[in-house]
Every structure is written in C-alpha cells, then in structure tokens.
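A favour, since you know our structure tokens better than I do. Go ahead and set the record down below.
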Amino acid sequence: MTSAPEESPENRTVLAKPVWAVRGAAIGTMLLICVPFPPWQWPEFPAALFLILPLLVPFLMILWRVRKTPRKDGLALAMGTGVILFVGAGLGLLIVLNDGGDLHWSALAFLAVFDAVQAILAGGAIGAYRLLGYAKGDWKLLTRGVVDPLVYFGVIALIFAASGPLLYERRMRREPVEAVAWMRKLHECATAYAASHPAQGFPAHLDLLGSRGAKCIEPLSPANERSGYVFTYVPSAPEPGGKIAAYFVTARRGDRVAPRQRSFYMGATGTIRATTEDRDATPQDPTVQ
C-alpha cells in the first residue's frame, strides 16, 4: 500500500485526534513516572533525578517527532514504547495480584492507570499510522520503533539494578533520621502548646499542632505516615480538671521491608527510645543518642 501525503487536506483533520491521543498519553506517562518522586522532593533526594530523567527521554522524543512532518518516526517510536511498557506494566499487575500477602492497592492502582495510558499511547500511534498508510520499507521504521526503546529501557534497567541497592541503603539510613527529627519537633511543639494552654496541657490530638491549629509541625498523611513510618500519638487520660498531663508517640515502619529496622518511642520528656525487634518501641528500650 502506498503512503498518503502526511499533511494533505484529506488526512490532516482525521489525524488530529489520534496524534493528540499520542501527545496526551506521552505527557500522562511522564507525569506518572514522576509520582514516586515528585519534583518538590528532588532537592532533598537529588538521586531521584538520575532515576527519573532517563525515563522521560523517550517521551520527550515522541512529543518532538510527532509535532511536525514527517510524523512516522514519532508514531513508530510511540507504538514500540507503548507496547513494551504496556506488557511490562501488565506483568507488574500480575505479580502484584499473585503476591501471597495482602494486596498493595496503591501499586495496583498505579500499574492499572499506567497500563491504560500505554494502551492509549500505542493505540493512538497505530491509528495515526494507519491513516497515513503503510509504504514500502516501513517495516524497517516500525522494527526500529520497537528495538530502540527495548534496548534503551534494557540499558536503563541494568543501570537501575546496579545502583538500586546503593540508593535503597541510603534511603533506609535517611528515613529513620527524618522520623526522629519529626518526633523531636513534635516534642518542641507539644511542650510549647502545654505552656501556652496551662489549663488544657498537652494537645488532645495532633491537629492542634498542625495546619488546623498552631501550625507548628508539618502534618502527617491521612494514614499518619511520614518518611516511611506510621506515627501514633496517644495523650494521657485527662485529669479531673480536663488537663492532659502527658503523652507518648510511637513510630513504626509502615512496611517492614528490611531486617533490623528501628521502631521508636517518645514520651512527654522528649527522650526517644528505639528497638530493632519487630514490635512497637517502649519506655524500656535503649535511648536514641
């Protein structure tokens, strides 16, 4: 079949919809790639840039190549990239679904959305390419559209496999430090709150210290999580006059993915204690220096 002119009046209008689907899916994929390490975390975790930027390159190339004629290079790359990532995300979905433990709903939702976006990317590219028509020799272009991203992502995977343990170890060292720092800030804010509210004492809940109250401490997530730890704040029972004289807070990994990860305990005195056992820390555990 001979190829129609790419920008002829007859096909320019009908090409618009599938080409915009390719553009939208490419942009959507780049946004999804940034979800694990959003831009506001990059200053705190510069290594995230080395993880994210190489993954964005193929989609930037797709956007550049489909912006003007000839479009077939960009469409072939979009087809190959979309199909490869669709299969990869599909395999990831199967792994999550067949995991022997509890379902990881966040990972399941992410992979499902990612897979759907790749289907749109590949489907839009296939639709646009068909409208342009297949010309003699296009098999070389289409083959390169699959082989190039396959080799590229293969190299990226090897680099990630080599650097992953180092980055993971760094993360495992950083997160406990951040958890302890947040607990110390909590003690500072709770002590100041008790001093300014002598009749009430310590806060009955953390919202009184966060954005809805004193705005002294950065709030936790809706699941009371921060830096990989789940925090539990427990005020003491009110005294007869309603004053809360003490409190304690525990911090434990939300997902105990490595051995000997520490759990923390802090009472109203501000002393932080820790244990590497698979349990909540208690006042009897060793003090954190």
About this structure: The chain has two domains: 9-136, 174-275. The helical segments are 9-33, 47-65, 72-97, 105-132, 138-196. Confidence is low (pLDDT under 50) at residues 1-5.
